[in-house]
């Protein structure tokens, strides 16, 4: 597979830096071709200076075109970051804002003018795998934890960004207790990362419902017979 690894962490000697290095070695050992976007090392500019967010071959900045070309080359996207304030670091948000521009990430239509999103779009056919570290303990990011269920905390990224653009989204790897990880804890985390990367081509993705799959009505609301009586984010899983 062709794999694009996007890292958003300012310190290469951090836990995230070590895991990135472990991940790249693992992918190479497995025979995958890998390209990397280390956003802090690249001094990525996260600021959108076109209010419309439009980006085509004539108006798109060179750095944005280069990232789009990496995405089109890739069969899989790995997005790695520390969870800051229940979200991605600003530099990564700015990468999505600029690279997933109108005509590439959104505003994509087929020949009949139908909007392609939530399972369809420019990046359909690719896989996406999110890796994040959090200081919270595992129980605190569980279904009844005060921080919220980890997958639902990541819903805007997993569903609203990656699935929106057509990618098949794998269950995220959320490494909790990152600020108190012991050497043994790191070895366990690295082993889990290697296990997940070995299954990158074959792991079952999160079964999100496609916008045009029949579960949503003309107002983009789930039909009454689909997950009746429920309003939680998990209703968007088939």
TrEMBL record:
It comes from Actinomadura miaoliensis. This is NAD(P)H-dependent oxidoreductase. Residues 1-195 form the Flavodoxin-like fold domain. InterPro entries: Flavodoxin_fold, Flavoprotein-like_sf, NAD(P)H_dehydrogenase_qn. Belongs to the NAD(P)H dehydrogenase (quinone) family. The keyword Transferase does not apply. The lineage of its organism: Bacteria, Bacillati, Actinomycetota, Actinomycetes, Streptosporangiales. Keywords: Oxidoreductase. The keyword ATP-binding does not apply.
């Amino acid at each position: 597979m062709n794999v694009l690894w996007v890292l958003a962490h300012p310190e290469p000697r951090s836990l995230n830096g070590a895991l990135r290095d472990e991940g790249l070695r693992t992918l190479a050992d497995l025979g995958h071709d890998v390209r990397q976007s280390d956003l802090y090392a690249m001094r990525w500019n996260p600021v959108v200076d076109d209010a419309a967010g439009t980006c085509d071959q004539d108006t798109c900045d060179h750095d944005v075109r280069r990232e789009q070309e990496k995405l089109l080359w890739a069969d899989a996207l790995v997005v790695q970051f520390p969870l800051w304030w229940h979200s991605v670091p600003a530099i990564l948000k700015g990468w999505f804002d600029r690279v997933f521009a109108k005509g590439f990430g959104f505003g994509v239509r087929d020949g009949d003018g139908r909007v392609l999103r939530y399972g369809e779009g420019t990046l359909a056919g690719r896989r996406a795998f999110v890796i994040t570290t959090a200081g919270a303990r595992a129980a605190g990011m569980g279904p009844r934890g005060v921080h919220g269920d980890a997958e639902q905390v990541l819903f805007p990224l997993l569903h609203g960004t990656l699935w929106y653009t057509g990618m098949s989204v794998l269950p995220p790897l959320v490494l909790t207790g990152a600020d108190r990880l012991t050497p043994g804890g790191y070895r366990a985390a690295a082993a889990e990362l290697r296990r997940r990367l070995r299954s990158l081509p074959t792991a079952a993705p999160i079964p999100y419902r496609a916008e045009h799959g029949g579960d949503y009505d003309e107002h983009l609301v789930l039909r009454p017979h689909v997950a009746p009586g429920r309003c939680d984010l998990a209703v968007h899983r088939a």
